[in-house]
Specification:
Mean pLDDT: 83
Largest sheet: 6 strands, antiparallel, barrel
Helix content: 40-55%
Order of helices and strands: HEEEEHHHHEEEEEEEHEE
Structural class: alpha+beta
Low-confidence stretches: 1-18
Shape: elongated
Number of helices: 6
Amino acid sequence: MRRRFVALLPIVLVATCAPPPPTDHIRASGHVEATETRLAPDAGGRILTMTVKEGDRVETGQIILTLDRRDLELALTRVHADVAQADAQLRLVQAAARDEDVRQAESQIAIARADVSVARSELASAEQDLRRFEALLESNAGSRKQRDDAETRRNIAKDRTAAAESRVRSAEEALRRLRTGARREEIEVAHARVAAASAQAAALDKNLADTTFASPVSGIVTQKLVEVGEVIAPRTPTLVVVDLVRAWADVFVPEPAVPRIRIGQSATVHTDAGGPGLDGTVTYISPKAEFTPRNVQTVEDRSKLVYRIRVSVDNTDGVLKQGMPVEAVVPYQQ
């Protein structure tokens, strides 16, 4: 019995000499969080350039990518023609028919029909070229670029033909209206057409502007979700940016300590690297208890119910990183 007593004595002494827990503050463990923003341009299309990569810092207003705008430019050209045509029709229906106006309208019809003839000839030639390059491509005697360029010329010729035919119909309709006169309802319809075409032009102008995408926030690029050459739909997320300047620490305290902590009070956040720590402010106290997250403390501690406390800090120097384990010293409030 004497030997057993001697062996247990150091253990008893260590246990009785352990310092009591502090009564003026609590030390709580947790991790760093920061605001993540997924950047998504309003426009869609093929990505031509991306100026940033993962790890880069971006500033608000910095251009981060550009999209191919050729299709939008062609569409805007057509819409501007529609606006001019609708405006001309409005002026025609508002005016009374005069001999001079009739002669001018007849001249416009002749010009439009001549344009149709030229456009159809160009379309036939473009379609012939396309068939030829497709045959060459199938026999491995031509390149895909030649075939794609021929298809682009064919599509442009088709659009020009359709536009020319539309101008013929519009000119013929304008002549008919000059000869028959316009009713009030017709004038209202013409006004509506002008408004609709103008609205479409404004929408395309915005889409064109959106093909150059600037970052709406500042921060560090943590994920690059797309690559140059990809075709994206409108509002597709392209980058994830984290703002570490206004980071915070989510730490977890046991229920008995919660009544002695107040929103707005000061706290200090420490990293595993040591040092004086960063001054912060308690900005949130969760109203709901939860089990300690698995990435905090020991297995025994993770089985306890705790409350999440948020300590916001000024991280201008970039000391804190997202996900970094930290410890917060939170003074008790009387």
